[in-house]
């Protein structure tokens, strides 16, 4: 997740993109046996599936 956050910050992303990157990076990392590793193709395939909703 931290890698996704830092990548989004480096791109001057708004909060919604930052959250999407963090979630996609964390999920892609959890899908691998190696700690701290993620597959870029997996990361990019997860991004469009992450929805953010405002809670009231």
What does this protein look like?
The chain has helices spanning 2-10, 15-30, 40-46. It is mainly α. The radius of gyration is 11 Å and the shape is globular.
Q: What fraction of the residues are assigned to beta strands by DSSP?
A: under 5%
What are the secondary-structure elements, in order, as H or E? HHH
**How many individual β-strands?**
0
Radius of gyration: 11 Å
Share of helical residues? 55-70%
Shape label: globular
Average pLDDT confidence is: 93
Kindly report how far apart the N and C termini lie. 25 Å
Return the structural class: mainly alpha
Q: Which residues sit in consecutive blocks of at least 5 with pLDDT less than 50?
A: none
Count the helices. How many? 3
Query: Major β-sheet, in short?
Result: none
Please tag this protein with its features.
56 residues; mainly alpha
Structure in a nutshell:
By secondary structure, the chain is mostly helical. The protein is built from three helices and no strands.
Task: Chart the SSEs and their pairings.
Layout: H1 2-10, H2 15-30, H3 40-46
Helix pairs in contact: 1-2, 2-3
């Amino acid at each position: 997740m931290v890698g996704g956050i830092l990548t989004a910050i480096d791109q001057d992303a708004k909060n919604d993109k930052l959250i999407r990157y963090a979630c996609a990076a964390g999920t892609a990392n959890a899908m691998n046996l190696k700690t701290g590793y993620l597959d870029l193709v997996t990361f990019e395939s997860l991004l469009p599936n992450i929805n953010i909703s405002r809670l009231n």
